[in-house]
Amino acid sequence: MDKREQIIEIATKLFSERGYENTALSLVCEKANVSKGLISHHFKSKDGLLREIFLKTTQLIVEINRVDKENQTPSEQLIELLDSLFSKLASDKLFFQFNLNVMVQPNTRKVLDDLIKERSSFILKKTKEIFDKIDIENSLVMSHMFIAELDGISLNYLGIYEDFPLEQIKKEIIKKYALQ
Amino acid sequence: MDKREQIIEIATKLFSERGYENTALSLVCEKANVSKGLISHHFKSKDGLLREIFLKTTQLIVEINRVDKENQTPSEQLIELLDSLFSKLASDKLFFQFNLNVMVQPNTRKVLDDLIKERSSFILKKTKEIFDKIDIENSLVMSHMFIAELDGISLNYLGIYEDFPLEQIKKEIIKKYALQ
Amino acid sequence: MDKREQIIEIATKLFSERGYENTALSLVCEKANVSKGLISHHFKSKDGLLREIFLKTTQLIVEINRVDKENQTPSEQLIELLDSLFSKLASDKLFFQFNLNVMVQPNTRKVLDDLIKERSSFILKKTKEIFDKIDIENSLVMSHMFIAELDGISLNYLGIYEDFPLEQIKKEIIKKYALQ
Amino acid sequence: MDKREQIIEIATKLFSERGYENTALSLVCEKANVSKGLISHHFKSKDGLLREIFLKTTQLIVEINRVDKENQTPSEQLIELLDSLFSKLASDKLFFQFNLNVMVQPNTRKVLDDLIKERSSFILKKTKEIFDKIDIENSLVMSHMFIAELDGISLNYLGIYEDFPLEQIKKEIIKKYALQ
DNA sequence: GATGAATGAGTATTCATTCAT
DNA sequence: AATGAATGAATACTCATTCAT
């Protein structure tokens, strides 16, 4: 059993559920069955642990975009992307909760600044690539709107409206973007 | 000079800039030139102060929606709404920062639960009213999408992309929703 | 009972006996019957408390030098000064222990830098004044030697030689400096 | 490259510069490119390492006193001793810094108690031997004064006065003690 | 001899809250 | 309404030491 991995796993869960600032390292230690010193040893500080976790979620996002799309039309690619995104949104709320959380909180935002910039420019680039293939006009602005809309859906679904009509919105989004 | 009002003003600014959890009441006291006891006296607790502030921002949102629209077409109303929203987004970032912040943070989310629900259902209702007047099909789902898109734009503009093309996106949004 | 004063008193004693770095604030709190927060409240930090204490000991030194010497010859002044110094050295070891301690420890030395410089230049000035009155040649260098010798005596008496012949050395010193 | 020796060298430097209590073994390990376990292995504990270092500095002091003085008069011996001492004081401040440090700090004082006593009685004996040869009256007390004065000079030169007139004081000391 | 993961007690500091005045 | 001394629980972090490899 790798204790380092265990810390990351537990901390990810707790940071997502309770928020970064509201999660004491002592709680992480307790739940992960690990001493306080070990976090210092492996991650140097709480912020260091946060960065490690954020990096891991970025890798996950990168992987979602790396699926082999050789024999798909751009529209099919977009549909698949939306499909996997909406699936994950429904199945793994905490993943999105965590990411929203740390990007909005001024404190964590600062700690993760470079990593957030790196990730978000990657997402923008990938989106624009698809839009360019589909030959959408004004692809940069449209990519920004596309990303914003999906982020807004996450935000409203996760944090604001209890009866958010996720499924129907998914259909509308696919209709709007992929079936042009 | 009303000290109660001064506390609210300073606290709003600090909570917005630094996040709720990362703002010590002692800092609020110092900046507002006020003793610690006075916050307890007026607001009972830090959470109480937060609720008071959130209520005030809700009132502001309500006011934006209350502008007299008697002699406007629904489309004109929508355009004006979008206009004032994008203006405020550019001029008063902290206002949106604060609201995003407290809605995404699990802790504050819990404290404000009832107020958030009240506000968001108000916003949904108002949006749907306009969409119904415009006679948009599937108005509930479309209202959700509309709100989500605007929230997503705030999120991306404020917290993620440094060179977010706000102006162009505003034009696209108006084109999309109001000029049908 | 003034708790602020109580903290200073207890801390002075403990810092002297155990050294600054080896004295936990929790120990000070326990002995002074005071909560941990109160030290923060009054002194901001452990270093702040140290500076306060060092300032107080400086005041004591200043007072020793302020005794009315109107109707004394310079030699009589010097004898009286030596007398009170040697008395205090024998009766209040901790006082000297503390001062040696914080001036030699790199950490505390840094924290107290400005205060140490201020104090030591005061002592040098006062010594030189007397030496000038006695009309001693090369008074600046001789003042330095005088101060160094007394500091060295403290150091050896307090910290090194268990059977240090303090009384006889006092006589020799008086013979050497005051009876020229 | 002998790692044991390397640890001693680095630790001596760091203890001197930063003080014993303020120097973490992890820092020593890092600077010496050595694992934590190795210090335990070689020196058992941090205190063990300190004792080893103190012993080494004692040996250095012994060597200074062992220089062949067969064909020198006692006065010449004393001058040479003072000369080498003042040279070292100017060239190797850290050496004296370290020794002052550990003798004044209650914690380290306790750990090194036996070694300090041994060393200081050696120094006293050696000094008294020379003074006896010169036929100085009251040689024990005078030896104590001599040692104290030199210690005081170190203390004031290293830790208190930035513009301490070391060279002139050296001349005065030689005049006073060696040219009688 | 040498490593480094792991421990756990200990440290200064923070902070919302209480309460006498 | 207003102050600020006082509390005490909580927090991130430090660090010497142990031990399996």
TrEMBL record, chains A, B, C, D:
<dbReference type="InterPro" id="IPR001647">
    <property type="entry name" value="HTH_TetR"/>
</dbReference>
<keyword id="KW-0238">DNA-binding</keyword>
<dbReference type="Pfam" id="PF00440">
    <property type="entry name" value="TetR_N"/>
</dbReference>
<feature type="DNA-binding region" description="H-T-H motif">
    <location>
        <begin position="24"/>
        <end position="43"/>
    </location>
</feature>
<dbReference type="InterPro" id="IPR050624">
    <property type="entry name" value="HTH-type_Tx_Regulator"/>
</dbReference>
<dbReference type="InterPro" id="IPR009057">
    <property type="entry name" value="Homeodomain-like_sf"/>
</dbReference>
<protein>
    <submittedName>
        <fullName>Transcriptional regulator, TetR family</fullName>
    </submittedName>
</protein>
<dbReference type="GO" id="GO:0003677">
    <property type="term" value="F:DNA binding"/>
</dbReference>
<feature type="domain" description="HTH tetR-type">
    <location>
        <begin position="1"/>
        <end position="61"/>
    </location>
</feature>
